[in-house]
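Field: COMPLEX_INPUT
Field: COMPONENT_COUNT = three
Field: RESIDUE_TOTAL = 959
Field: MODE = joint
Values follow.
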Amino acid sequence: MPALLEIENLDVDYFANGAWQPAVRSVNFELQPGETLGLVGESGCGKSTLARAIMRLLPKNGRVSGGRVRFMGSDLLKLEERQLLAVRWDEISMVFQGAMNVLDPVYTIGDQIMEAIAEHRPRERKRDMWAKAEQLLEDVGIDKARARSYPHELSGGMRQRVGIAMAIALEPSLVIADEPTTALDVISQDNVLARLTSVQKERGFSMILVSHDMGVIAETCDRVAVMYAGSIVELGLVRDIFHRPSHPYSIGLQGAVAHVSQTKPAIAIPGHPPAGDQRDSGCLFRQRCPFATELCANPVPWHEVEEGHGLLCHYPERREEFRQAGALPETWDRVAERQSLATQAA
Amino acid sequence: MNIQSVIEAIRRDKLALLGLFILLVFIFIAFFGGELAPYGPNEIVRNAEGRVQVLQGPSWQFPFGTTDLGRDVFSQILHGTRPVLIVGFFAAIIPTAIGTLLGLIAGYVRKWADTLISRAVEIAYSLPFEPFAIILLFVLGPSLPTLILAISIIDWRRPARVVRNQVMTLSGSSFIKAARVAGASTSWIVLRHMLPLTLPISLIYIPFAFGNAVLAESALSFLGFGDPKSVSWGTILRQAFDGGAMDRGWWWMVAPGICITAAVTSVFFLTRPFEELVNPRLRRG
Amino acid sequence: MNWSYLARRLLYLVINLWVLITIAFFLFRLLPGNPADFLIDPLLTDPERRAAVMERLGLNDPLLMQYLKYLAALFQGDLGTSFRTNLPVTEIVGRSFANTMVLVVVMFVVAYTVGITVGAYFASRRGALAERIGGTLALVVRGAPAFFIGVLLIMLFSAQLGWLPSTGMRSGNYSESNLWAVYTSPDFLSHLILPVATAAITACVAPMILMRNTMLDVMHSDFMDLVEAKGVPRRKRLYRHGVRNALMPLVAEGSQFIGYAVGGLVEIEVVFSWPGLGREIVTAINTRDYLVAQGAFIYIGILVMVVYFIADLLAAALDPRLRRSSAH
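Field: COMPLEX_OUTPUT
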C-alpha cells in the first residue's frame, strides 16, 4: 500500500542576518493512512518549520531549498497556486498552536468554519454549511449555539477545539497539529488532546503531531521522530524509542523527564543547539554528546537498528552501552566540564 | 536604538539624506540669510532709470521674481527663513517636552492624574487648531512668542497620549515591578527607568512637531495673524494672494509655497528610516 | 448594543462641550484692557452710551455671575447680536455652519475612501516601485500647506484653464426653488469641486499612510496563517480579512486627524472665499465683531465634536469587542 505522505531529503532555509541559514536538513520519512506520527524536539529544532513546509506555509523569509513532499503521489512543492489552494484544507489541514490568536476576531466562529467549507464546496447551500458547522462544533464538545459567538467570547480551550473542528470540516486525509496544547492550561490540555484523539479515531485521518512535550507524544502517537538542529536523529515506534532510545540525544531526553517513581534527579543536557549559521556537515549534537569522537565531525549516516527503527549516528552498534551510561548523571556532568574547558581555552 | 544605528539608518536611505541636506541648508540660511540676501525684506527695488521693478519674472537678478510693489521675492524668502525656523524649532521642543512629562505622569501615577490629563488630551484634540489659535493670537497680539505659545498649547496632545500609552504598557513589565518591590520611589522610577525608554518615542516626535509647527505658522501668517515685524513665508504668500499673484505673477506664489513644503517634507524624509526601525514590519522585502 | 459604552461617550461629549464653551468665554476676556470690553462694539466710543450698554448687559457684575448668565443665554440659543449687521449671531453663524458642513462631509467621504483604498493597495504592493513613488509623493503632499495646494489648483484650473470658478459658493445670479436644488445645482457643484479637492488632498494622506501601516500589521497577524492554510486565495485574504480587520484600528486612530482636517478648512475657506465658519471667524475678528467670532468658534468646536462622536460610533459598530457589554 503506498504511503499517504512521503518526505524525501527535505531541506528548508531561513533568511536571517543577511544570509540563508539551514533550518531543516535531509528529512526523510513516510506516513501511512490512519497513522499518527509525532515530531518531538526542543525549541528551534525545526519541527514547526517542517510542519509548515509540508503545507507550503513558510513565512516570506523561508524557502524550501531541496527535496520532495509527495502526497498521494504528487509532489506538493511542484503544485500550481490554484491546485495548492484546492489541496489545502480539503486534503491536508492544520491545527495551529495558540488558537487564541489564529481566529479572525471580527467574524463569528460559525462564519469562519463556514468559510473553510465554502471555499472548497462552492455548490453547497448556506443553510447546509451552517448546519455542518454547528455539527462540527458539537463533535468537539461545544454547544452549537456558540456558533454565533466571536472568538474573544470563548475560552482558550474552546478556541483550540474550534480549531480542531475547522481542521476536520472537509474530512482531510492528513491533519497536522502544531503544538495544539502548548498554550493551554493543564486541564484544557487534557481535554483538547482527548478530543483530538477521539476525533481521529472516529474519522481515521493521518496525523502529524508536533510537540516539545514527550508525554503528549507518548499518549497519542504511533511513531515518533526525534528532531535536533534541523534533522531527524531518531525515528521509530513510540514504544521502541521509549524502551530502547538509541541516539544519545533521545537518551538524554529520556533522562531529562523525571518520573514520579524515580528517586534520582532529572538530567539536563548541558549546552544548547547550534544556531543556524553555526551548522556544519558533521553531527550537530557532538558538542553536547558524552560519546563524541573525532569521527563525529564527519557527515553522519542513517542506520536501521531494528525493523522500522533508525537513527543518525556514527556508533549505532554501541547504543546499549550509551543507554546504560546515559542514565547516569555523571556522564552528562563530564560533558558540562568538557564544555567549560572548551570555553576557557577559547 | 543607539547613535550608531541612527546614523547607519540615515546613511542608507537616500531620501533621508536629501531631507537632512535641505534641512541643513535652511538652518544655514536661518543664521546667515539676513546678510546673504541682496535686498531688504521690504525694500523696493528700482532699476538704473529709477523705475520700480514691479512683477518681474524670475531672472538672474531676481531668482524668484518680484512682487507687485517691486520687492525681491528671493530676498524676502531668505529673510523669512529665520522666523519660520525659530517658531518651528521652539514650537516643536516645548510641546514635546510638556507632552512627554504629562504623559509620564499620567501613565505612571494613573488614577486621578491620568483621568485629568487624559481628559485634557481629549479636549485638546477636539479643539480645532486654527480657530483657537487665531482668537488667541488676536487677543494676545501676534508675535513670535505668542505664535509659539498658540502652537504649543495644542500640539502637546500627541506626545502626551503616545507616551502615556507606552508608560502604561511598561509599568506592567517585570523589571519595573521588581524596582518597586525593591523600594524605589515613584519619581526615581519615572526618571531612571521610564524616561530612557520613552525618550526614543519623544525624540522621534520632534521632527513631526517641527513640521506641524512650520505648517501652522505659515497658515496663521497667511491668515494675517503672523508676526507683523517679520516677513515669514506665510506672510509672503498672503501678500501674493492679495496682490493677484495667481493671475499676474505665479513665481511670487509658488516660491514661498515650495519652501514651506520643502522644509516640512525634509523632516518627514529624515524620519522615515526611524519609522522602520521602530516598527520592523514596515521593512521592505 | 452596549448602552454603557454609548452613555459614557455621550457623557464625555457633554463634558467636552462644556469645556469648549467655557474656553470660548474666557478667551475673549484675555483681551488687554477691560475684559468686558469685548461684548460692546469697539466702535461705540461715547462713554455715556458705553456705560449704559454695560449696565444693560450686566457687565458690571462679578465674573462668575457673567459666566452663569452666559451659560443661561447659551441654553436658550442666544449667542448675542452682531455689531455689524445687528442680526442674531445664531442666524449668521447658522448659515455658515451649513456651508462648512457640506465641505466637511464631502471632504471626509472622499478623503477616507481614497485614503483607505490607496493605502490598502500600497500595503499589498509593498516594496514595488509604485508604492515607493506613491509613498514619497504622499509625504510631499502632506508637507504642503493646504492653502498652497488650493492656490495651485486655482492657478491651474481656474486662471489657466478656466474650467472651474475660483471663489464663492455660487455665481452671483442664482435662483433655486428649494434647499435640495440649491445644493445639487451644477453651479453649486462646480464651485464645490476645487475647495473639496484641496481639502480631500490634504486630508487623505494621513489615513492613507495609517491604512498602509495597519494593513501590513494585519497581513502578518497570526490569524492570517490560518486563513491562508484554509486555501483562501490572496485577493480574498486581503479584502475579506485584511481590510476588515484593519478598519477597526484605522477608525480608532484615524479620528485624531479629524480636528486637524476640520481646522485646516479655515485656510481653504479663506482661499476660496467659501462662506463657511472658518472664513466667518477670520472676517469677524478682522472687523472686531467679537460675538460673531465667539459664536463661530463654538460652532466649529461643536462640529468637530459631532464628527468625533460619529467616528466613535463607527468604531463601536466595527469592533465586535466593543459592542457586547462583556468587554472590560
